[in-house]
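Troubleshooting log. The previous structure file for this entry was overwritten by mistake, so regenerating from the original sequence record. Sequence copied from the archived sheet and checked twice against the printout by T.R.
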Amino acid sequence: MTLSIVTTVLNRVSTIRYCIENVINQGVELEHIIVDGGSTDGTLEIINEYNSYFSKIISEPDEGIYDGLNKGLKLASRDIIGILNSDDEYFDSNVLSKVGTVFDNNKIDSCYGDLVYIDKDNPKKIVRYWKAGDYNSQKVYWGWMPPHPTFFVRKRVYDTYGCFNINLGSAADYELMIRFLLKHKISVAYIPEILVKMRTGGESNFSIKNRILANLNDRMAWKVNRLTPYPWTMFFKPLRKFDQYLKRPKSHDHFFSI
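Regenerated output below.
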């Protein structure tokens, strides 16, 4: 199993070093690709400190995060591709080793795990706990989806079925997973452990206007794939976030004592 990690970034001087060193500390041989959208706040200077570590670095204006990810995906040359946002980190130093073990089975096309949202100002404070659970295609019709930052996919799947649809805004990751899992029925494995720590502040949740737009794009994700959701699919999708708050552990420290 050989691995590519794609990270897109724009003006994240406060977090990019943590992201880079977190990947380095995984201790596995990999290809880390950085796609910078034209940062002006010192982010690129930090990236260049690790220049000898990166396999590829792009720094140029893009049309948003998913355009940047598509550039990175096209440059990726390893068998398995993972995406790690510049604000995020792997939960511990063994995540990529665990992912590699899953993909030792050549019949597995993709895998995912659990995710915790952490406070952007206090990384030890868990805000939400996204316990994904086993995959079942019917769950998607009830508003379920895998945590996209934990989604690892074989390169052959991207080569065959395409990358992100940048016309769908913040629903581009949702559309991609629907396309892969429901339309093309790729095989998927669940790792019942927390794989990623994700900082709060997602674009789709920033305002009511953005939440409405995200819902419309979610509906379009089904339409472009000629799939028909249940009448209540889009209603239940955002409601699933409430369960993530309820599952938040009362004590946080034991999670970060690794």
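The chain has a mean pLDDT of 90. Archived copy saved in two places this time.
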